[in-house]
Amino acid sequence: MKQIVQTMKGGNLTLETVPPPALRPGGVLVRTAASLISAGTEKMLIDLAQKSLVGKAQARPDLVRQVLNKAQKEGWLNTYQNVRSKLEKPMPLGYSAAGIVESIGAEVTQWKVGDRVAIAGAGYANHAELNYVPNNLVASIPDSVSFEEAAYTTVASIALQGVRLARPELGDLVALSGLGLIGLITLQLLKANGCRVIGMDFDAKKVELARTLGLDEAVLLPNQDPVKAVAHFTNGRGVDHTVITASTTSNQPVEIAGELTRRKGQVVVVGAVGMNIPRDLYYKKELEVKISMSYGPGRYDPSYEEGGVDYPYDYVRWTEQRNMEAILNLMAQKRLNMKELTTHHFPFDQAMAAYGLIQSAKEPYVGVILDYDTQKLQDPVVLLQPKQSEPLAPQVSDQLRIGFVGAGNYATLHLLPHLESDPYVQMGGLVTATGINARQKADKFAFSYCSTALDSLLNDDLLHAIFIATRHGTHADYTLRALAKGKHVFVEKPMVVSEEELHAVCDAYHQANQKRPTALMVGLNRRFAPMTTQCKAFFQNHEPKHLLYRVNSGHIPTSSWIYDAAEGGGMLVGEMCHFIDLMQFITEERPVRVQAQSLTLNNQAIADQDNLTLTLEFDRGSVGTLCYNTVGDKAAAKERLEVYGGNKVAILDDFRTLELTRNGRQDRHKAANQNKGQADQMKATVEAFRLHGKAPIPFEELVGDMQVVFAAKASLATGQPVKISRIV
């Protein structure tokens, strides 16, 4: 399918061929019929993308501070690679569209194939021929409303939310600052509420269009004085509400709003404007200031937008979805005139001309609609050709041909580059949830094809191995399906998120190996780090060791998908398996008993189980203690491992320094950049898969790692030690 793609690195804007998005359980696939270019928002994003690195830094000083902090901890090379990866990441444009339901997720009951719907959301209602949209960002289009009109629904909902915050009463006087697209819709909503409206803008044509839509009095800036005009309009009293829908970095709209609004009146900010509020003016009038949050309650709440959890109707009357429904009903009642706002139509294949119009500003525009061919066939797989300017990989007879699932930031930085550069690897197919990411990463890492359908990899008989780097809740399912096809599997940690899944994976692994050697490897990379192997070699004897592992992890909001039991499993499952494995590796012993205790924080924003002390006993006398917390200061180092035994001490700090002490002598090793072993892990995995049909970590250790995690969960629940019985 075709999709508009913007890159932050160079600002390139293209109409790209990408795979259709994957259908997920909580939403629908929609075949787009029309989408609206939100000229103000999208032009702002394009302008930012086209700035130099210095310009981007000046626009986002908060991100510059984050980069500097990261460089201090991890080194400049790692930080540079991370920043470059984010700048190269493709960005979809568009968030307001309409179309026809193509297919329905397993958890959705509200829609049926063929329904006409309006869709919303950045990253969902894209300028693309097919879009995946979560259930709560979809609304039914009345029969009398066209796709063109319905394409305005999201933008109109932004205007509606601003009006809801103002709570105008019949006969109220309102000043409207900015008569662009959202301003003109806001005008119509205010008139529908029985308000008298005075509007102002710098564009004479927009002012005239506003008059045709019911504006009571107009102010053309800068020729006319808005303060005098409002004084005349209100008989010197000032307006009851000023609604700012302008988009500018200037502070002028907020300053003028204070002068226009009556004492104890209200200023509602909908547009992106300077927010340096003149205190003296606002104080003396005791003005109320409200900032509208996009298109209604639910915005920026992952449980609502992605998880499909609706707010109770009786307690949250107007949500994103219900605002969309209200807008569509107003269109059906002919209370909102959207056709008058459409100044330009472009076939989707000519979308670049539409953006050229907006960028050049050679002719006036308001609403720019892209029209789509809803009958066009869409191929689920995009075949790619090697770049002619790059030499082909050397032909090695015993290469490992791989498929890769998931290409997020971690995989892009730490897994895929090492696989692509390995002469013993052939990059077969890449699958990700979004087509835009699949195409960009497939091009970058020289895959033969890309898709959003896992079956395209599973049914490819030429692939020897599947590498999985998706969200935790999918790991077991994808592993089971790949093992059933007889393919080697590398899966990022954690292997599973439940004990039931662990038993299922064990069964599938043994069944696969009854037919032929089939490897299963988990991404526990820390044991492959150069400083880890140096630390282990330092303790050459097998005397019991005492290990203390302190992890000062950053806080993650409990609203994150990580804390969903089925999707993430929490930090104990998703992250702490790393540190348990490293202790298992250093001791060369099997864990036999664990006890865990967590803090009691009484804070809904922080999970108690993220702040725990875990004591692990091993079968030959070693003891390891993991202290994992999220309540520390990020300025401190994240990881510190101390190992004591055989009259020796090793201290590993953040995989950048290693201190080895024996016989009263200390050797200190320091690295310029943090190295957590991903490159060596990938090399070892490819070699083991290719030559031996095995994984570089024994299967029983992988299973034992997860057993410790689940035993620790049980210990947290009971407060008692839990014995670990081997299942393999």
Write the layout of secondary structure elements.
Blueprint lengths: L1 E6 L5 E5 L9 E11 L1 H11 L3 H7 L1 H14 L1 H13 L1 E3 L3 E9 L11 E5 L9 E5 L3 E3 L6 H4 L2 H14 L6 E5 L3 H12 L3 E6 L2 H9 L4 E4 L5 H8 L5 E6 L7 H9 E9 L9 H7 L2 E4 L10 H4 L14 H13 L9 E6 L3 H10 L6 E5 L9 E3 L16 E6 L3 H6 L1 H5 L4 E7 L3 H10 L4 E3 L3 H4 L6 E4 L3 H13 L3 E5 L6 H17 L4 E4 L6 H9 L7 E7 L17 H5 L2 H11 L3 E8 L13 E7 L4 E7 L9 E7 L2 E6 L3 E6 L2 E6 L7 H15 L6 H20 L3 E2 L5
Parallel strand pairs: 9-10, 9-12, 10-11, 12-13, 13-14, 15-16, 18-19, 18-21, 19-20, 21-22, 22-23, 24-27
Antiparallel strand pairs: 1-2, 1-4, 3-5, 3-7, 3-16, 5-6, 6-8, 17-20, 24-28, 25-26, 25-32, 26-27, 28-29, 29-30, 30-31
Helix pairs in contact: 3-4, 6-7, 6-13, 19-20, 23-25
Summarize the structure.
This protein has 728 residues and is α/β, with parallel strands linked by helices.
Structure characterization notes:
The protein has 728 residues and is α/β, with parallel strands linked by helices. It contains 25 helices and 32 strands. It has a nine-stranded mixed sheet with strand order 31-30-29-28-24-27-26-25-32, with helices on one face. Strands 3, 5, 6, 7, 8, 15 and 16 form a seven-stranded mixed sheet that branches. Strand 19, helix 17 and strand 20 form a beta-alpha-beta unit. Helix 6 packs across helix 13, helix 19 packs parallel to helix 20 and helix 23 crosses helix 25. The longest helix has 20 residues. It is elongated, with a radius of gyration of 29 Å. The protein starts with a strand and ends in a 5-residue tail after the last strand. About 1% of the residues have low confidence.
